[in-house]
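Aim 2 progress update. The chain analyzed this quarter is reproduced below.
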Amino acid sequence: MANYNHLIRELSRLDPYEKAGFDSFRRTGTMLRHGQYLYLVMHGADRHTLEAINDPPALREQGQIVASFHEKYGNTGLTEADFMPSDMNVAIEKLLRYIEIPAHSHEFIECAYVLRGSCIHRIGENEVIQQEGSFILIPVPTRHQLIAVGDSLCLTMKIRLSHFVKMSIPHLPSMIYPISFQCGEDPAAESMLLFLYEQQKHGFPYRNELMESTAAALITYILQRYMDTMQPLYSIALRDKRLLDMVNYMYNHYRTITLHDLAEEFHYNTSYLSRMFQEQAGRSFSETVKDFKLRKAVELLKTKNWKLDQICDEIGYSDTRQFIRSFKQMFGVTPDRFRKVEQQTVH
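Predicted structure tokens:
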């Protein structure tokens, strides 16, 4: 197995943006704000002090930059066109430290692996601490936030959605919410990730082909070795282990699951289970199942040229009109309009 200690040392060093963030953290106790970071990206981190980026003219420009960024990506999420190299289906980078990257969604699949230390992962109101060896798969269109804790090292891998579908990884669960695996100290998984980073950094011949095959091998390997550690990460806070087990079961049977089925599976009275779900999950059983189905519909609208009745059949909706109403209520547009906008963005 290759020795990548030199890459670990390189990744451990602060880049110019991280140095600015560390300076802010050391002097004020707060990380570099997103607007400050974008300002430095535009003007050069090596030419600006913390005092300079906090001058009134710089602050005004930062406000304009953030407003423009939100207008462009706030509703649609980060696009493949702007956040992935045009000639690559798989890309990898270090999660920046001491810089506040706000909650966001994206058009691509994102994977995150904690090499050293820990990483805070926020999904809605839920906050999870991902420890060393954690591997997270984050689907479209999950809104989330990743924060490296202190000097921790975390690599994030982006995969184009169209390519991810073609990878056909065996036994990969249908990803409605992010899922995490606990790999612990696994030299093989770490070596594959650092190999990906090295290939991208140096642009070796056949880089793209090797990165695509290695990304598929990495995810398949983690499924093979660590499937028993898999946990869906939800945007609702689940305080009861029993409820988490039930939501996991719903996650795997969302097409046809009913409250009666769930009560029978876990030996509960349906009325009691309904109340417990509402009180502890913060929303009803039916709302959670609907959320699962509609997020799967988004994935199908992006990747399949199916008619709406086919999509309804796939996700377990018996009434197409009700599906359209529910989709518009959740996402603000009809499924047909969502697909047209998506196709225009791709073109």
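The longest strand covers residues 109-116. The first helix runs from residue 5 to 12. These observations will guide the mutagenesis experiments scheduled for the next reporting period.
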